[in-house]
Design brief:
By secondary structure, the chain is mostly helical. It is built from 21 helices and three strands. It has a three-stranded antiparallel beta sheet, covered by helices on one side. The longest helix is centred in the middle third of the chain and has 31 residues. The chain is elongated.
Length: about 475
């Protein structure tokens, strides 16, 4: 247990601190001073909006928003977090009206560096005694800062993730390279469509079509190319790329932790976006069948023998790392994401080899990923969400989705719906496993020690002479 404690880094994650009751404010606040109360409320709700925008669960967002307000003297607060809004009310006693502020999150974005920077800011509010004005200035810098990497780096990272997933599924170099190029086409096309204001559902439809087109083309040319092409590897890779980043973890977490309304909204979003992918893939498969290209049925099994197990583990680690890079994670978080992806895949394959089903294997692997993410949140000062979302990405059920769609196209509706239902069950098991693993990591709390400086923290913190005296 002592070794496990050392592995956790010796510091609590911010959500652990936020969930701990009875914190003392940095300084008393005059509740009759409308300006001071408004400043503290605005800071708390802005921090919460960044967390919600990044996919943090509603309950975790609520706790951390309330923690920030309490830090600056507003201890009697009520926080309500829904799918796209945060309302916070500060009670000022029986003779004063409550102060309320609200903020709406208009869009969601994958920028893990911004999430990590806000995570570090919450720590510094308590440990470096930042004033509300200083915290506001740092938060302004975080929110307005550009992405830490150029757009071409994110494009290459998405493509690298696709190639890694293709190798994970057993593809050779040519198919992996085709998946690399296909993902670049998907990413750049959807960026253009997003600038035109096309709803995300239709972007997913277009992405599903682009992901499927290379499969029949390469399958019909495999004799010319002198290789064996399994169309399922190409299509499943595209499905995994399009599924990654959806708020499946957040939706299941909200449902489990007591935020059913937000969970329903997030789950509906996930279902609609997945439906867009299914529509695009199904349309392309139908057109392929009409023009006379009959694609072969595939086995949806992940296991390819223990000889390929090291290759699959390394490919899963690379896929998780590339996903984190594509989501603009800080460099120190890439190693944590790779470890989570590799460890999760190793666990998945070992459990699968013990005659367990895909759902049980996926859930078990996700528990390990969530647990590791919770521990590494202290070791690397990286939010658990980064490791969790990246770590389960290689386990997303792309093959099951493809097999279900193939059955539906072949008029085998029972098998098709069964496979799609199995894919949904795998997705829920992954998300639920991550939540359980993170809960397990939170039970290993230790008293906080002095925080180690990190690149993100030092990037936004004020200079020593700008800090208030202790």
């Amino acid at each position: 247990m002592r070794k496990l404690g050392r592995g956790s880094g010796g510091t609590q994650a911010t959500i652990d601190t936020a969930a701990t009751p009875a914190i003392l404010p940095l300084q008393p606040i005059d509740l009759t001073d409308d300006a001071a109360v408004t400043e503290a409320l605005d800071l708390a709700v802005r921090v919460g909006s960044v967390l919600l925008d990044s996919g943090t669960g509603a309950i975790d967002t609520q706790w951390q928003t309330q923690f920030v307000a309490s830090t600056y003297g507003l201890e009697q607060c009520e926080v309500d977090v829904t799918y796209n809004s945060i309302i916070i009310t500060a009670h000022r006693g029986p003779t004063l009206p409550p102060a309320t502020t609200m903020r709406v999150v208009h869009h969601r974005s994958l920028d893990f560096t911004r999430l990590a920077a806000v995570d570090h800011l919450i720590r510094q509010m308590r440990n470096r005694l930042l004033t509300p004005a200083q915290a506001h200035r740092i938060l302004d810098t975080i929110v307005s800062a550009p992405h830490p990497y150029p757009r071409w780096v994110a494009t290459a990272a998405w493509a690298g993730m696709a190639a890694s997933v293709a190798v994970l599924l057993g593809a050779g170099p040519i198919v992996a390279f085709a998946s690399f190029l296909t993902t670049i086409a998907i990413y750049r096309t959807n960026l253009y469509l997003n600038r035109l204001g096309l709803p995300l559902f239709y972007q997913q439809v277009v992405g599903g079509m682009i992901a499927t087109i290379p499969a029949p083309v390469m399958y019909s040319l495999q004799d010319v190319l002198g290789i064996t092409v399994l169309p399922s590897q190409i299509v499943a890779t595209g499905i995994v790329v399009l599924l990654s980043g959806l708020s499946l973890v957040g939706s299941v977490q909200d449902a489990i932790t007591g935020a059913p309304i937000t969970a329903s909204a997030r789950l509906l979003e996930v279902v609609m976006m997945t439906g867009g992918i299914i529509t695009g893939v199904a349309l392309t498969l139908q057109i392929t069948q009409q023009i006379g290209i009959q694609l072969p049925m595939v086995d949806a099994s992940f296991m390819q023998g223990f000889i390929r197990l090291p290759v699959q583990v390394v490919a899963a680690a690379a896929a998780a790392m590339f996903f984190a890079l594509a989501s603009y994670a800080e460099l120190r978080a890439l190693t944590a994401a790779a470890f989570g992806g590799g460890a999760g895949m190793l666990t998945f394959l070992l459990v699968l080899s013990a005659s367990a089903g895909n759902v049980a294997a996926g859930g078990t692997a996700a528990i390990l990923v969530g647990f590791a993410g919770g521990l590494m949140a202290r070791r690397a000062l990286t939010p658990p969400l980064v490791v969790a979302v990246a770590g389960i990405t290689p386990l997303l059920p792309g093959l099951s989705v493809y097999r279900g769609l193939y059955n539906l196209i072949a008029d085998d509706r029972v098998a098709g719906l069964t496979n799609l239902g199995n894919a949904f069950a795998i997705g829920v098991a992954l998300a639920a496993g991550v939540v359980l693993g993170e809960w397990g990591a939170r039970t290993l709390r230790r008293p906080e020690i002095t925080l180690r400086p990190t690149p993100v923290a030092t990037r936004f913190l004020p200079k020593p002479w700008q800090r208030p005296p202790p």
